[in-house]
Amino acid sequence: MPAPSAETFARLRALVAIDEPDERPSLSVIEVFTGEQLATVPVGTAEDVQAAVARGRKAQAAWAARPIKERAAIVERYRALVARDRDFLMDVLQAECGKSRSAAQEEVLDLLLNSRYYAKEADNLLGPQQVAGLLPGLVKTVVHRQPKGVVGVIAPWNYPMAMSISDALPALVAGNAVVVKPDSNTPFCTLVNAELLYEAGIPRDIFAVVTGPGSVVGNEIADSVDFLMFTGSSNTGRKLAEHAGRRLIGISAELGGKNPMIVLEGTNIDKVAKAATRACFANAGQLCISIERIYVQDSIADEFIKKFGDKVKDMKLGSTYDYKTDMGSLISEDQLKTVADHVEDAKIKGATVIAGGKARPDLGPSFFEPTVLTDVTEDMICARNETFGPLVSIYRVSGVDEAIERANDSEYGLNASVWAASDSEGEAIATQLHSGTVNINEGYGPAYGSTAAPMGGMGISGIGRRHGPEGILKYTEPQTVATTRVLNLDPPFGLSNEVWQQLITPLVQTVQRLPGR
Fold first, then answer.
1. Choosing from 288, 292, 382, 386, which is the catalytic residue?
2. Is 288 one of the annotated active-site residues of the chain?
3. Model confidence, pTM
């Protein structure tokens, strides 16, 4: 399958043509593999965002009034539609992002996993929860979960379905309206899923997509919504967090990573070397949780470097819409330049290229070889800065303690990978790492794919979490309702206030000693 079908392209063009206003400026969307125009989308304005937020705010109360199970059932229907349109969705992902087919499939799996988890667990997580009241039998205390209102999602280009739709699903199930700004490189990845959500039963006013530049559309979303979900760079996340702080609204942000892998003696080096190609070069390394630093115990370093280097050299690059290639293209020539600059800077300053190191214009305008470096020093750009491309550096360490120390020597703290002689040793190391997720015997997939568990970053890698209970509860306001029965807090039984005040502390202490308190 060398290219997506004409039906795929026609479906995308028809999608935008439905609502495109006359005289509206448009933005070209490029098929990454060829550099040719895929289709166009309208350029949104601040007024478009304001209108979308206003419609969402008007419709949100009725949406929130629907039973949780009814909202969850719509998300479950959406999941079935994703499964039905799986190949089409992967075509769109490959065309807009330049992904390999396997990397595109990862994203479709993300939609399936998240939609199922939140459809299944929403009622338990969002329903009223009775907790221990002040005085047993006299005070009934219930915690309710009220939706925030209108949630804004600003999504990136690297995993545009997962970071727009999967982040929107729990917000929708929680009773919010959602306005999404997709990245200008990848708008169709969001738009095609919007149509599936509408087909599943999401009201159009409850879920809106506004395409356009971040400086206009993104800023207006940050100015207008009641909660903001952002995925992108740490620098932009910092600015948005400051803005949210001034507005006193909540924000959840998954940001950059300079993720370490630790490889210790006693591991199966052949197995590690093979798995590391996925960990480092999935989506051409354009993945915030991919590995960019590998710390290898000195006693096995030579063997690992040789075997990993050979595996990387054997990787198949290409632009086919099938599973025959291991790695696709970078998203753009700008991203290609960033990677090339990092590699060239390292080479000039003395790094050794074990594999890769060159652009591949023969394959397409934005291809770059998966690249492995050794002898990387602190003065090199790639030593501490996130490359966000197919570049990984290998460092020798004396043992466990040095590996942990150097893995933690970073402002980032998003993901880590540990390969040790035993699972128990790996797990003991994991708890000492400054990282939001840690994978034992793998690179990033198992922790990220465990949608019942929280995922997010420490340090400058983010605030808040996606996935798990935190991934839906963040889109709600907890409301405590306490009902006082029989007696209130006035002095009972004719006691004077003085006597009553003297009895309160011993009474509370007695209550605290009761079973279950």
1. 288
2. yes
3. 0.95
